[in-house]
Description:
Distance between the termini: 28 Å
Low-confidence stretches: none
Largest sheet: none
Order of helices and strands: HHHHH
Number of domains: 1
Mean pLDDT: 95
Shape: elongated
Radius of gyration: 15 Å
Amino acid sequence: MRTKSIVNAILRIVPAVILLQTLFFKFTAAPESVYIFEKLGLEPWGRIGLGVLELIVAVLILIPKTTWLGALIGIGIMGGAIFSHLTTLGIVVQNDGGTLFFLALVTFIFCVVLVWTNRNQITFLNK
């Protein structure tokens, strides 16, 4: 039982930390972040709006009763990020070695696992 609790904590903490650490770059208009959102045609409002949404998602993921909701929204956000990398940005963005793509992929996978493991809390699925 203890192992399950540790795994559950890791599944929640990893995507939350990834989402939270990117906020600094979004909210301070770091050149890398501005570049990405300009290339997507979403600068500045997309950068700021997604930053706010990612903050909300990270908090929801960390709260056990709302983990499923944060993870569900996280799947959508990270799905969009992965799609953007594959269609517009490329895997490697400004010589990052693919780090941003990898972090989006990890967050996406962890969110999928969180939705699956918390599916019993999703009322509209349990009717």
